[in-house]
Amino acid sequence: MPIILFALLVFVLLALAGVVLLSLALRYRAGTARRQARRWAASLNVWVTSFSAVFFLSFTLLLSFWIGSAFRFALIGLGFGAILALLGLAMTRWESRSEGLFYTPSRWLAVVVTLAIAARFIYGWWRATHSGSSALGDQHWLITASGTQLSLAVAAGLIGYYLLYSIGVRLRLTRHEQRREA
Fold first, then answer.
1. Three-state SS letters, 6-22
2. Phi, psi of 35, rounded to the nearest 5 degrees
3. For residues 105 and 97, what is the distance between their CA atoms, to the nearest angstrom?
4. What pLDDT was estimated at residue 145?
5. How many beta carbons lie within 10 A of that of residue 10, not counting itself?
6. More confident residue, 10 or 126
7. Cα distance between residue 5 and residue 58, in whole Å
8. Strand ranges (E), 21-69
9. Contact call for residues 106 and 117 (beta carbons, < 8 A)
10. Is pLDDT of 71 > 80?
């Protein structure tokens, strides 16, 4: 009986690892797909990510009453995400066709975003499986930061990236439409 339970546990863990790897591969594929910039989709992206950013920052501000530096980590993550989005907009391939404006996000930035998600997952697993019994006094601040703070920073980085990137797509589309009308 214990061998069957052990085999079932191994199967479940392998299946979970397979699902995680598949989701990361699909995330990368979706992040590098060529898309047509549509006004309604670009506007919706800006509004939804703006709402998400405001809601997230409000949540982290409230959370900072219990976890002192939660809001600071969220702002740092948002800043890194914004810088990454500016880099992403500069590296995006834009195509002006008769059907409209098309864009292909940078493959390198899609890898970075996908790896940020994977790194946070792996770090969370590592923090969950290793006890915090070591002396914290002489360790780097990144090591002593709680998993919650780093999760907030990564999540804020992703929100900041997508918010600024969607604003950039919307502005580029508006410029493209103005040139076509002139």
1. HHHHHHHHHHHHHHHHH
2. -130, 155
3. 17
4. 54
5. 10
6. 10
7. 44
8. 35-36
9. no
10. yes
Q: Which amino acid type is present at position 37? A: A
CB atoms < 10 A from the CB of 55, how many? 11
Identify the residue whose tokens are 């792996």. 122
Residue 134: pLDDT band with limits 50, 70, 90: low
CB 171 within 8 A of CB 42: no
- Confidence (pTM): 0.77
Q: Which residues contact 26 (CB under 8 A, 6 or more apart)?
A: none
Q: Cβ distance 77 to 156 under 8 Å?
A: yes
Distances (CA, A) of 157 to 30, 32, 92: 19, 19, 19
| 35 DSSP assignment | E
Contact (Cβ atoms closer than 8 angstroms) between residue 170 and residue 43: yes
For residues 25, 31, 33 and 39, what is the CA-based torsion angle, rounded to 10 degrees? 150
**How many CB atoms neighbour CB 148 within 10 A?**
16
First-to-last alpha carbon distance for the chain, in angstroms, is: 76
144: its two tokens: 């002593």
